[in-house]
Every structure is written in C-alpha cells, then in structure tokens.
Amino acid sequence: MKAGATRDLPDRGVGAPVPHAEIHRASLTALADRFADVLTAADIGRLA
C-alpha cells in the first residue's frame, strides 16, 4: 500500500480489531466492483 487513509477498526462482534490492510483491501475491492478504476501509483504515472 503506497497511500491510504484507513486505520484498524474495532470488531463489535468479537472485540479484536480488524487490521487497516483488510479495511483498505475490502474498500478498494468494493469500489472497483461497480464504480471505480483502482490503479497503482505506477499505473497513474503511465497515464500522463
């Protein structure tokens, strides 16, 4: 992950926090499924 604005979040059902990397991955996956193109920094650099 090059950049992200996620943080570990508490799991209210179990109590153990959900790691920020899982939050980040799930969020990007949901966006890419219907709404967005998810690109790496290298991909973006090639657009210019």
Describe this structure in words.
This protein is 46% helix and 0% strand. The chain is built from 2 helices and no strands. It has helices at 20-34, 41-47. It is elongated, with a radius of gyration of 14 Å.
The largest pleated sheet is described as: none
Shape: elongated
Low-confidence stretches: none
Mean pLDDT: 89
Number of helices: 2
Order of helices and strands: HH
Which percent range fits the helix content? 40-55%
End-to-end span in angstroms? Answer: 21 Å
Q: Number of DSSP strands?
A: 0
Radius of gyration: 14 Å
Which structural class fits the helix and strand makeup? mainly alpha
- The fraction of residues in strands falls at under 5%
Task: Give a quick summary of the entry.
The protein has 48 residues and is mainly alpha-helical. Helices cover 46% and strands 0% of the residues.
Q: Which features would summarize this protein structure in a list?
A:
single chain, 48 residues, mainly alpha, 0% strand
Q: What are the SSEs and their pairings?
A:
Elements: H1 20-34, H2 41-47
